[in-house]
Specification:
18% helix; 428 residues; single chain; alpha/beta; six-stranded mixed beta sheet
């Protein structure tokens, strides 16, 4: 009887696992549904609005582990079966809007930001639910809408007028790889060859570092040339505004080095018809700066002397969801993390739930906090200072590619985190 009872339990678990695992072809076509939203509001109230639905040929994303996410992010998007409520697909993300909400400007002003997400194209009607979280991981905005795949107002793109592009590594026939697109910002048509050379430099820079170097054959990398009217990018603090493909500018949130764009739809329009999942944008300038937003994009300058470490750092944000390990002595961004909540980024901790971070990688008797002068004894430790603040947030190494431009590599914890992301997308 005991054996029979055990068999029934194990069989039930097996059946549950089989039912909970979604089979891609049961629910989705080999196409992409692009969903454009507007996030709007201020530091007290945030809202989500549907902007447009777009159909793209082919699906470049994962076809397994559909109802899982590798990281929590600052928001989630879930595709649901309306009849059963089952999750058919989900993804997580962060957004420029959610960063802006933490700034002083958001205390007395409201703004709206574009956001775009890709999901597999459903065979039958589905519900899509998207939600935003605040730094305390509380839901602050939720929007749910119904999508009928036969809706005649779903705009078809990517079948004509595909942007000029070249593959740097792999090609579109490798279906089981991570598709990375590198775009040019502020390159005129006459500077096309300069862009393609810079895109190759970006590929070489990112895949110089581990674990990307060892796992480069899990990626396809394509360079996409969307010409700009003007050469260079906008630098507002110098009164220098350019007419560029994606409308990027320095001085985001009045921070001189922060280079971003809020014209997210223009980025995705340029990529229509080209397989892509992750995005790196190269700015045609030697001004220092950049930005990386998890599951959105990396944007960085192509001609600064620190291009190589910076593009890898920003890709650590946008692809790997890694947090910044540097800090400001005056704690000028003290509202970005909440000290009684564990950050979702895998390379910083408030010690609230450290066992889910890199506690298992610590040498025996590692002091907490670990002092900088002990870095040779503890390559993996608990060093105070990270997430922009000097106290209350901890990083795993005294130095790392996510802290300074001089660090020769991603630290061991960051490498493991990146490896896990790559495995999530490519292990079938």
């Amino acid at each position: 009887m005991k054996f029979k009872h055990l068999f029934i339990v194990l069989f039930s678990i097996f059946i549950h696992q089989q039912l909970s695992a979604q089979v891609f072809s049961d629910h989705f076509e080999n196409k992409t549904l692009r969903v454009d939203y507007i996030f709007s509001g201020n530091n007290l109230n945030q809202s989500i609005y549907l902007d447009e639905l777009i159909s793209l040929p082919g699906w470049a994303g994962r076809t397994t582990r559909l109802n899982e996410v590798p990281l929590e992010g600052n928001g989630q998007l879930i595709v649901l079966n309306p009849a059963s409520g089952d999750t058919l697909y989900m993804t997580s993300f962060s957004s420029l809007f959610q960063e802006w909400v933490t700034t002083d400007e958001a205390k007395d002003k409201s703004k709206a930001f574009e956001n775009t997400f890709l999901v597999p194209f459903p065979k039958k009607p589905v519900d899509i639910e998207i939600s935003l979280n605040n730094p305390s991981k509380e839901r602050v905005a939720v929007y749910k809408h119904h999508v009928n795949p036969d809706d005649i107002l779903i705009h078809k793109k990517g079948e004509k007028h595909i942007t000029s592009h070249k593959y740097i590594h792999g090609d579109s026939t490798y279906r089981d790889r991570i598709d990375l697109a590198i775009l040019g910002e502020g390159y005129t048509a006459e500077e096309t060859e300069l862009f393609y050379a810079d895109a190759k430099r970006a590929y070489d820079a990112i895949f110089y570092y581990e674990p990307f170097d060892a796992l480069k054959d899990r990626f396809n990398v394509v360079a996409v040339m969307a010409p700009s009217k003007d050469s260079g990018v906008s630098v507002p603090n110098k009164g220098d505004w350019k007419d560029t493909a994606f409308g990027s500018n320095f001085d985001t949130f009045y921070s001189p080095r922060y280079l971003t764009t809020s014209r997210v739809k223009s980025i995705h329009n340029a990529l229509a018809g080209i397989p892509y999942e992750h995005i790196v944008i190269l700015a045609n300038t030697d001004v220092y700066g950049g930005g990386g937003i998890y599951n959105s994009y990396t944007l960085t300058t192509a001609h600064h002397e620190n291009f190589k470490p910076v593009v890898a750092h920003e890709f650590g944000h946008s692809f790997g969801g890694l947090g910044d390990e540097y800090f400001y002595d005056d704690d000028m961004m003290e509202n970005f993390y909440v000290f009684n909540v564990e950050p979702w980024e895998q390379n910083i901790t408030t010690l609230v739930n450290f066992k889910d971070k890199w506690e298992d990688m610590l040498p025996a008797n590692t002091p907490v906090p670990t002092l900088p002068e002990q870095e040779n004894l503890y390559p993996v430790g608990v060093y105070e200072g990270g997430g922009y603040v000097s106290k209350g947030v901890y990083r795993p190494a005294n130095d790392c590619r996510m802290r300074t431009n001089n660090a020769p590599e991603f630290c061991q914890v960051c490498q493991r985190a990146l490896q896990r992301i790559i495995d999530f997308y490519t292990d079938n």
